[in-house]
Amino acid sequence: MKSILLSVSAAVSLCVPLGANEISELKTQLKMLTERLEMLESTTKTQSEQTKVLTDELINVQNQTSFTVVDSSKDIQGMGVAASKVYYSKNPLSIGGYGELYYSKYNDSVGIGDSRNSKGDTYRFIPYIGYKFSDTIILNSEIEFEHGNEVAIEQLYVDFVLDPLATVRVGHQLVPMGYVNLYHEPTLFNTVQRPDIEKQIIPSTWHELGLSVYGKTDSFEYTVGTYTALDMNNAGASGKDWIRKARVGNESDTGMENMAVAARLDYNGINGLQVGASAYAAKAGKAEIGSEEGKMFMYDIHALYQNEGFKARALYTEARLSHAGAYDAAMPEHARGGYVNLEYNVLPFFAQTSDRLPLFFQYENYNLATSMANGKSFGDTESFTYGLNYFPHEQVVLKGEYVLRHDRNSVSSHSSEGIYSFGLGFIF
């Protein structure tokens, strides 16, 4: 613009004869116009910079206040996809969760033929509340509302992210055993109820106070930590629930005499395949006077394979308690069990849609006390589960199944039973 004014001034001076005073006045006016133009250009530049700053701040505010949706491709090691939200949320505060409801009806024609009541349950509603102090210091929590009238804290910990190879977790957390114990959101397993083996032998959801370290490489993931130990004094003569009852969990009025060591290693080097093992060892709690304190050892081996619509999962586990008689004459000494779960999404054969319709089959075989302190055994149980899931959305699942269970043991009042179950699950 300044060059244009100067050019005009030069042209005028050449075409029109001017006196000295007139030329001086014209130069003064041009100088004033030039100064005004420079001021306008500076103001425009400043306004442009301010606009950019305001735009950036607005985008930042939107990110900070927006609700983070579940991203199934961003699950964190050893956690469900909804529980992982705080780790990738742009908002420091993250809220997620899951819920389960179900209805079950017994098939009275199976077994001894007696009639048993149907049951329904608002089984679980679990909010996750997380807060990211920074990219390397992250708080996460899992609060359980169960059966409509029970409340418990399942997880409350802080992660200190040192490196992809090592994150330190301090607080109340999951013990790294099994599959469903870690990945227990209802969209991640297809049965209405969790497998018996991952309720009775691996007592999911199994959460304790502890300190752990976890990390991963391109092909491996690991977790190792120390946790409050199972206390067999809590179990007593609990029958098939002898391991579940021994959990200390977050009960402040329960003694925490011992600390356990647990470790897990998974191999993920082949696309779609995970193979791994977990182990747990600890003293089992103070025994009666004059008796030696028992020791508890558990392990599991597990595998998961996925390829497009097909998924297969298998797990085998054992638990051993030494000096079981020091806790109760009928205390189990050893339990073992395994299951195989297969599913296939058949909906693509009928429609091109993002919905899913996996059909599944699960087989379980277990003995919750192959031997007891009194020399007896519970005997074997096996179950066959046939069912389907329907996913109208990747975060919502409707479930239906039929379980045929044969009990050849001393702790069940029914030798065989058939159960129809329907469930609803969701994550957010």
Tally of discrete structural domains:
2
Number of strands: 16
According to CATH, the fold-level topology of the largest domain is: Porin
Alpha-carbon distance between the termini?
58 Å
Q: Structural class per helix/strand content?
A: alpha+beta
Q: Overall pLDDT, averaged?
A: 88
Q: What is the CATH class of the largest domain?
A: Mainly Beta
CATH architecture of the largest domain: Beta Barrel
Compute the number of helices. 4
The general outline is elongated
Considering the protein shown, what is the CATH homologous superfamily of the largest domain? Porin
Low-confidence stretches: 8-15
Strand order of the largest sheet: 1-2-3-4-5-6-7-8-9-10-11-12-13-14-15-16
Radius of gyration: 33 Å
Instruction: Give the SSE order as H and E letters.
Output: HHHEEEEEHEEEEEEEEEEE
